[in-house]
Design the sequence.
């Protein structure tokens, strides 16, 4: 068995988490360390495939500053997610309403037409709903950019 070289040891530390713990601790002690640590926590929580509790444990091992950075990042992510979730919910609700109105007026739709409605933005869905009032065919409603 061969001895581990410097790059092998570094790789082993990275894989074990010791490398990241050392980096995060150095960041915590630096000027403006809490702000930097919060930014790293935000990024880690945004992209990590690991369970949230695993990310939390890493930051909480750093002590009070790590806990505060994690909680601040979690709060920021929660506030950002709420408006995005509301917007997505409104778009989904509009799409469902437009689909119901189209089905009531024109009957069953093709999967392609249904997909086009579900993929539309809120503004496009509003335009479809207006066109639906005077349209004589499904294609007329789905035709982008047409105004009546």
Sequence:
């Amino acid at each position: 068995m061969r001895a581990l070289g410097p790059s092998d040891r570094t790789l082993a530390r990275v894989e074990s988490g010791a490398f990241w713990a050392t980096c995060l601790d150095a960041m915590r002690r630096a000027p403006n360390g809490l702000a930097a640590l919060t930014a790293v926590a935000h990024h880690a929580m945004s992209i990590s495939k690991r369970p949230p509790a695993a990310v939390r444990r890493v930051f909480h091992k750093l002590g009070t500053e790590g806990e505060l950075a994690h909680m601040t990042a979690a709060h920021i992510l929660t506030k950002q997610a709420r408006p995005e979730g509301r917007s997505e919910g409104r778009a989904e609700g509009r799409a469902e309403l437009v689909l119901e109105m189209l089905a009531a007026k024109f009957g069953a739709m093709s999967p392609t037409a249904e997909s086009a409605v579900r993929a539309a933005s809120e503004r496009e869905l509003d335009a479809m709903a207006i066109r639906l009032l005077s349209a004589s065919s499904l294609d007329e409603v789905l035709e982008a950019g047409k105004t009546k």
Observations:
- The CA atoms of residues 10 and 19 lie 7 Å apart.
